[in-house]
């Protein structure tokens, strides 16, 4: 008899059935990889960061706090807003995805912890809302687009809503905003030889985020392979969000109006970096059109793509440090 493991309809258990769980499936491989790469934010020494932060100019300190506050509030948001996706996987009876997403949520919580520890270590304990609230695009993405598209899964976890949620969460918030911001910041810190603790934090977060991104690409791929009309849903959500996402970045630069921002951060370079990655991930999703859904479940290409991005980043970082 066919047993159900869907939430609310359970007649059996995935682990008890013949063959058990497929450890070769894409989400189980990500899960095992993540289990092997645990790190503890409390182990990172932030004493040099406190000295480097104290030695910065006021402008640089403002910029650093602004970037850190955006990252920290972002990590807190994604910790909360991923939870409906875990429930959506349970409702679909996809135990491997459900298991992987529990690790994913935990890692976001750990990223949140790492930033809060960093701010405490450099002596910033005042309210930080002033750094994000004037940024309308930031507020639109993190207090509206992200939670709305994720919590829509609660009443309707359809493939279309999963795609809208994944594009918003994985491809815009993680892929366009977080990974781009982290890379730019890593480059500044490595180039100047400052904030070694923050550099370590970002290295670990980047490692976790590569698995998160790979899962997002995988999830869009499996839906697009199963129903070709859903490719349009990917494209549509992307078009809706690209302008506000780029707005998050440009608003941070607006106040410098032609002046060079602290640390010589180059906005155009940042935008190019983001667009290059978004374009290549979209191609990876598009390549799933017409593919056999079974092969998608075992296909490691979304992970390979993220590893390739990593190798490219490493080469750029080595060149500046
Ligand atoms: Fe994160
Ligand atoms: Fe993430």
TrEMBL record:
Cofactor(s) required for function per UniProt: Fe cation; Mn(2+)
InterPro entries: Ferritin-like_SF, R2LOX, RNR-like, RNR_small_fam
The UniProt record lists the keyword Metal-binding: yes
Signal peptide location: none
CDD domains in the cross-refs: RNRR2_Rv0233_like
Gene3D superfamilies in UniProt: Ribonucleotide Reductase, subunit A (1.10.620.20)
Keyword Iron found: yes
Pfam families documented for this protein: Ribonuc_red_sm
Keywords for the protein's UniProt record, in alphabetical order: Iron, Manganese, Metal-binding, Oxidoreductase
Quaternary structure, from the entry: Homodimer.
Family: Belongs to the ribonucleoside diphosphate reductase small chain family. R2-like ligand binding oxidase subfamily.
Alphabetized NCBIfam families for the sequence: PRK08326.1-2 (NF006199), PRK08326.1-3 (NF006200), PRK08326.1-4 (NF006201)
Protein name stated in the entry: R2-like ligand binding oxidase
